[in-house]
UniProtKB/TrEMBL annotation:
Organism domain of life: Bacteria
InterPro entries assigned: EcKL, Kinase-like_dom_sf
Entry protein name: Phosphotransferase
Pfam families from the UniProt entry: EcKL
Organism placement in taxonomy: Bacteria, Pseudomonadati, Pseudomonadota, Betaproteobacteria, Burkholderiales
Length: 353
């Protein structure tokens, strides 16, 4: 079906057609856009009225319509499509606490992909934020959840080309690799190094050649290691806590990767620098314990520790180059500072300096 590409095109008629894929007979009689939250993608909160069957089917009065409604959106089509497939093709088969999904689809004649999901605000969820670092118990609870969903696809035969997850790409290939290369152009890299986030980290981490070599080495080191489905972007801005205290995940950029890429990314982005120094080893041990409890033959702690330390470079890169139209400079600076400190603590510095 054709998908709206502007907020004004989100109508009761269109949403009725979208919802009928999963809820035959439903009819949206009235739709009002209450909020428009811009970012990498746009979240539109809509207030709905139904003709009888909406209430009968348990559909809520408010939903979030998430898609590409910005000037930059055509450039992000692969990212939107990847998230749509996460909701449509992954979530039915793995145990991850996410917003309820009512529709997920793509427009085969264009670049747009849209997910219609639960409004978490209406359910009493508490949203996490980059500038409010997490406590030990919160991170430990999320690592338990990660161990569970990582184990469900650990080294799965479904990653074969003909398998259920054959479409899921690696983090260092395809559109994801193309995205990273865009920011390693010398003048582009220099632009981001000169922003406040650059001042928040050591000059040793400003070396573009070192950054490119480190990412290349990271991609090569992942070859041959067991992979699993990862959420792909577990910084605090993509996390919430339900009203009953359970950790939740949204804004997934699912990929196949070793566990260490996700665990290092989450621990370092979520914790205050001083807390991370105290807690990262016990938190890693906590994750490995729960991974083993889910039936995975886990690596020895010291091997896992080396993988964890090595993969911190990825998180630093993401927030060193993250555009301010996606996250504010305050958010990018907070994360860059956390990852930059971790790289120095673990001896990852530019060999050129």
């Amino acid at each position: 079906m054709r998908l709206p590409v502007t907020v004004d095109e989100i109508s009761a008629k269109w949403l009725t057609a979208a919802l009928r894929f999963r809820y035959p007979g439903v009819e949206v009689t009235s739709l009002k856009c209450e909020d428009v939250l811009s970012g990498t993608s746009t979240k539109v909160r809509v207030l709905l009225e139904y003709k009888g069957t909406g209430d009968d089917l348990g559909l809520p009065a408010r939903m979030i319509v998430k898609g590409g409604f910005e000037e930059h959106s055509p450039l992000m089509k692969d990212m939107y499509h990847n998230e749509m497939r996460f909701y449509r093709d992954v979530l039915p088969f793995i145990d991850m606490n996410t917003p309820r999904c009512f529709y997920a689809g793509t427009d085969p004649s264009g670049w747009q992909s849209i997910v219609v999901m639960e409004d978490l605000r209406a359910s009493g969820a508490t949203f996490c934020h980059a500038q409010r670092s997490a406590g030990y118990d919160d991170v430990a609870a999320r690592l338990v959840a990660m161990a569970r969903y990582h184990a469900q696809t650990w080294d799965s035969p479904e990653f074969a080309e003909s398998g259920r997850y054959g479409w899921v790409g690696e983090r260092f290939s395809g559109w994801s690799l193309d995205y990273m290369r865009r920011y390693l152009v010398p003048e582009v890299w220099r632009h981001y190094a000169e922003l406040p986030r650059g001042a928040a980290v050591s000059r040793l981490l400003h070396d573009r050649d070192w950054m490119e070599a480190a990412l290349t080495h990271l991609g090569e080191s992942h070859r041959g290691k067991p992979v699993c489905l990862i959420h792909g972007d577990t910084h605090l801005g993509n996390l919430y806590v339900t009203a009953d205290g359970k950790p939740g995940f949204f804004d997934a950029q699912v990929s196949r990767a070793p566990w260490s890429l996700e665990v290092s990314y989450h621990i370092c982005s979520a914790l205050d620098i001083a807390d991370r120094r105290k807690w990262e080893r016990p938190l890693l041990a906590h994750y490995l314990t729960h991974l083993a409890a889910n039936g995975v033959e886990t690596p020895a702690f010291e091997v896992a520790w080396q993988d964890y330390r090595r993969d911190l470079i990825y998180g630093y890169f993401i927030f060193a180059i993250n555009e301010t139209r996606f996250q504010t400079e305050a958010v990018n600076t907070a994360y860059a500072a956390r990852f930059g400190a971790a790289l120095l603590d673990h001896g990852t510095v530019s060999p050129a300096q």
